[in-house]
Amino acid sequence: MASEQHTSGDELGRFLRARRTQTSPESVGFTPGAGIRRTPGLRREELAALAGVSIDYYIRLERGKETRPSPGVVDSLARALRLDDEEHHHLRELAARAANYAPEPPPPPSRTVRPHLKLLLETMRPHPAYIVSRSMDLLAWNPGGLALYAGMADWPARQRNLARYLFLHPTARELFPDWEPLVRACVARLRAQAGTSPDAPDLVGLVGELVLKSPDFAKLWERYEVIGRKKTQKTFHHPEVGVLTLRGQNMHLEGTPGQRLCVYTAEPGSPDHDAMLLLDMTAPEPARHADAKSGRPRPAQS
């Protein structure tokens, strides 16, 4: 149990250290003295003073030795680091988890998508739509939803993951002209998920793979950002239908293990809408299998 508490305390410490080293003295009212600062961002003693805690106590927090900070200390650290609401909430979740660590990691969530949700994807055509897991696995899709990510269909179904695509697929950087802010938001989302479920097998496996295979991912992962600047519009330089800009919407699916529905739309009559229609018309239809009992064909989209 002691080692498990140490693990959860480490996650709290990593977040504090990342935010401290990325907070400039000037942004919190300090005037750096003469000479070269060897520490990026705030020094530990500066943050401790701002938060009203002893330097020894703060060092124990950052090293994972102290796992039960009071709500008042957590809030003081958040104010000292100028955390926004989402980062403040994440810090509270990390502190709560450090104090009440569950010894058994949770099982990976089910990848099963209910039949009525697959039907919903079909009724959304010609709008590209798909369902993803909390770790961004692509679980189900309509033809445009898969074809939108050019080259994704070349991967086996269980390998299809949006984060893996962004960092490891050779087409991704060409598909997205704003690739850099897109991947920062992607990593921030994964960081927030992994921060409160660091032992979850689906997240551990994906993060471990991307840290090893993508230097860009590894660098962003170390920054420990937990919020991303999400854009409601995305521009795709698609090799099949040309440039199209679509408005995206993500929705949590009630009664599912963290699954989200993602759908893209375009203004009717616009060139973007025409390109979207062309994408749906030219995308390969999902394979169909006969229903064993009725003989009727049924779509298989995941």
UniProtKB/TrEMBL annotation:
Domain HTH cro/C1-type: 41-88
Source species of the chain: Streptomyces coeruleofuscus
PROSITE patterns linked: HTH_CROC1
Signal peptide region: none
Disordered as annotated region, ranges: 16-37
The protein's name: Helix-turn-helix transcriptional regulator
Pfam families: HTH_31, MLTR_LBD
SMART domains: HTH_XRE
